[in-house]
């Protein structure tokens, strides 16, 4: 029997193969150091947890909440944009709270896509950037995610050769998985480009606060007039280590925000009110927890780059995000990122995410997440050193990518 239409558009996650290898190794007693998924291991701030507890267990907060987000939460997000980016937003018409930014992104795709609509999506990218639109019946035209001047030549070509003309372009800086960042000049060019071609910009800014070297990533909305064509997504998941709480935001263009709010009004009643109240406290409260989070990831980044380099694997230091995007060490390049990631689990007890899980241009790379503590990162480096020293033995029996079907 033929698979359902939507399921056909959702191939099994590439990461599943590595997850299976991980489960198998763990069942056999291995202590896998998991640098695979971008799942923050830090605790949510105590004052936010306290606010959640304080709000729980009252009949009023047990009721259905507000799908667009309670007004105080939307005002808190407006205050954050003003404080952090100098961008003024109307909480009534330009902000919607979402059940994590992933849900917001997927439902914007549902809201704005007609079957066959073309969307320009970076490759490699966080999977929902493409699959949100594929699920909605859209067609993906991929471009490299490197924010260089060449980017616009590529996108211009993609627009010229797409039928029908694309409706939107997705950008994500700091990028998951590549950790690339973009500056305001790039966004100025992007906004001018989007206006010229009459397309929307969907900007995923999930890593707005996870940056190193004192260089905060800008928002597309800082460009004057960007709101005419832009919607931007932010998240509490990484900023406040609240990934499981499922709280994010879509802000910007009123037409898209209204469309998203309409779709959501049919689907959900908003996050649990205590979660929304606690998220409001996070945005309005002391911000030291954010710089502490940043310091933890900065130290981990340093430990990783330094200890992996001593182990024989040179990893480019990311400038932002919680990931390093690293070429596969030379002797293993031919086998491809999935086989390499599996081998690393089996022989070094270290899990990383294979580059092809983020798109075809991800081949040759793996993504390493800074989600274990410094001691575990050092242990991973020691395991990898042994693994690399035994490279000739490890390579025995591995079928090169080119010879596989
Ligand atoms: C680029 C990017 N966007 C969105 C998300 C999802 O975030 P949320 O937890 O807000 O749904 C992630 C999570 O890893 C991400 O890396």
TrEMBL record:
CDD domains: AAT_like. Residues 31-383 form the Aminotransferase class I/classII large domain. The keyword Transferase applies. Keywords: Aminotransferase, Transferase. The keyword Transferase applies. SUPFAM superfamilies: PLP-dependent transferases (SSF53383). Coiled coil: none annotated. InterPro entries: Aminotransferase_I/II_large, LL-DAP_aminotransferase, NHTrfase_class1_PyrdxlP-BS, PyrdxlP-dep_Trfase, PyrdxlP-dep_Trfase_major, PyrdxlP-dep_Trfase_small. Belongs to the class-I pyridoxal-phosphate-dependent aminotransferase family. This is Aminotransferase. The lineage of its organism: Bacteria, Pseudomonadati, Pseudomonadota, Alphaproteobacteria, Hyphomicrobiales.
């Amino acid at each position: 029997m033929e698979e359902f239409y939507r399921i056909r558009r959702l191939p099994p996650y590439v990461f599943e193969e590595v997850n299976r290898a991980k489960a198998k190794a763990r069942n056999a007693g291995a202590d896998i150091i998991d640098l695979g998924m971008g799942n923050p291991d830090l605790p949510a701030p105590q004052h936010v947890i306290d606010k959640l507890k304080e709000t729980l267990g009252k009949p009023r907060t047990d009721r259905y909440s507000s799908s667009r987000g309670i007004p105080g939460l939307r005002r808190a997000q407006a205050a954050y944009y003003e404080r952090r980016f100098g961008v003024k937003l109307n909480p009534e018409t330009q902000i919607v709270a979402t059940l994590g930014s992933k849900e917001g992104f997927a439902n914007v795709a549902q809201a704005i896509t007609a079957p066959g609509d073309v969307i320009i999506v970076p490759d490699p990218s966080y999977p929902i950037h493409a699959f949100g639109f594929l699920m909605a019946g859209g067609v993906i035209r991929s471009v490299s995610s490197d924010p260089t001047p060449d980017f616009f030549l590529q996108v211009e070509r993609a627009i010229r050769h797409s039928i029908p003309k694309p409706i939107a372009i997705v950008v994500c800086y700091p990028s998951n998985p590549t950790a690339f960042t973009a500056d305001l000049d790039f966004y100025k060019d992007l906004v001018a480009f989007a206006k010229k071609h009459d397309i929307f910009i969907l900007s995923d800014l999930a890593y707005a606060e996870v940056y190193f070297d004192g260089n905060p990533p800008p928002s597309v909305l800082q460009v004057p007039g960007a709101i005419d064509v832009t919607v931007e997504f932010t998240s509490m998941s990484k900023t406040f280590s609240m990934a499981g709480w499922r709280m994010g935001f879509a802000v910007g263009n009123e037409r898209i925000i209204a469309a998203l709010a309409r779709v959501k009004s049919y689907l959900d009643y908003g996050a649990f009110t205590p979660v929304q109240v606690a998220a409001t406290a996070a945005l309005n409260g002391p911000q030291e927890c954010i710089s502490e989070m940043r310091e933890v990831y900065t130290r981990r980044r340093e430990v990783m780059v330094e200890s992996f380099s001593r182990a024989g694997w040179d990893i480019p230091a990311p400038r932002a995000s919680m990931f390093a995007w690293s070429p596969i060490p030379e002797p293993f390049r031919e086998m491809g990122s999935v086989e390499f990631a599996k081998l690393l689990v089996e022989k070094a007890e270290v899990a990383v995410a294979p580059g092809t899980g983020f798109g075809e241009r991800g081949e040759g790379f793996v993504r390493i997440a800074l989600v274990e503590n410094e001691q575990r990162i050092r242990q991973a480096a020691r395991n990898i050193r042994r693994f690399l020293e035994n490279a000739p033995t490890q390579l025995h029996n591995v079928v090169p990518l080119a010879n596989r079907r």
